[in-house]
Known about the structure:
Helix content: 55-70%
Largest sheet: none
Structural class: mainly alpha
Amino acid sequence: YATTRSLFSWKRIKLLMQRLGFEEAEARSIVSELGHSTSNTSSSEAKLESFSRLEMECYAANQLLRETDLYGMRHSLEIRVPFIDLELSKTISRLPEEIRFLPNKQILKKAFPEIPSQIFSRPKTGFTLPWDQWIHSQLKHHFEPIDRSFSGMRLTWFQKMAILSLNHWAKNHNFSLKVG
């Protein structure tokens, strides 16, 4: 789960930690600790169940809902997410896995037959912010130290943002990182 939703692979975390000034043994210990906290279940059903739980508890709660709320407030919008309801989630979690994990939103289609089928079959659309463009123009002065410290590593814009945030946190907590 962690490698599909995390910003960095375990290998890259170790390399980043070394470049940030951690000793190799310390970096290896922390990466090992992080690795042991992930689920090691063996059956595919247990893995699917574990992945589903982590999606709700981590990705949805800590990223999607937080960002939805943040961007909604920024633009004075009240955003509702009707299918993220505690009672609904509890009810669905009690369904057998062979029903709960049916493909193509079959449960939703049966629960709401009044929703036109074209709604379910249309392709997903997204909205992306031009972070990469901003990092190389208006925000360039914030990211040049990261580019220098991690030259040779192809970092995505969100990985650079994570390093910038970590560096900011470290400075505010009197912890020194080698960025710059």
